[in-house]
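Morning!

This is the sequence you dropped in the shared folder:
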Amino acid sequence: MYTLNKVGKQYGANSVLAHINCKIPVDGVVVVMGPSGSGKSTLLRLLSFVERPDEGTIDLKLNGDSFRSPGNDRPWPRVTCVFQKQFLWPHLTVLQNLRLPLEAARHQDVDERVAKMIDLFEMSGFVNRFPNEVSGGQAQRAALARALVLDPELILIDEPHGGLDLEQQSVLNRHLVDLSSSGIGLFIVTHSLDFAQVYADHLVIVEDGTISEMGPREILEHPTSLYLRRSMGVAGVAGGTPLN
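The structure's back. Tokens below.
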């Protein structure tokens, strides 16, 4: 469980997140949605402890252990993050990218773990290629595999569907379902309302630098936030088109 207490984040004079108070579960699939520029990716970086809040605190309780930001504790590799640009090292093959975090952590079973990821994400056909030699869907699978190779308990993923065609999205969604079914918690930032309607266990809606609505998937039936009302095409509200 995440507990956010008066959390705020600024970049220079620009306030991105302000006065966020909430509790967010870490089990199942948590989908984070909202307009572009609302602060979703910043929230994800704070929840991954990659960045620290400028105001307030974030507490994470994960299987009996506690972590706090700002503070000296960081839950990596139990909590890992897949950023929108994937950040695969361009001078390393996909295989070398997979091996890198294991070798840095001095694991003894590198070959076994890597082989498991190659099989799980069906990467044998492109694992010896460089990142610029694979498709967007293949690169996204490689980034997920690299995050998973250290056996995290929670993975935070920023815009996994961006730039993927429908077939690639379908393959990726199948892998995400498999990960969730294995007991790994997933936080997923996405603009895909279809994905949220099918896969979300919990939703967090970010608007204007704060959380405007959150709850189980059933909130989609009677949304209260402006973003969800417009996205769902609720009667009396213009549009019905996602705000992205």
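Headline: Residues 235-244 have pLDDT under 50 and may be disordered.

More detail when I'm at my desk.
O.
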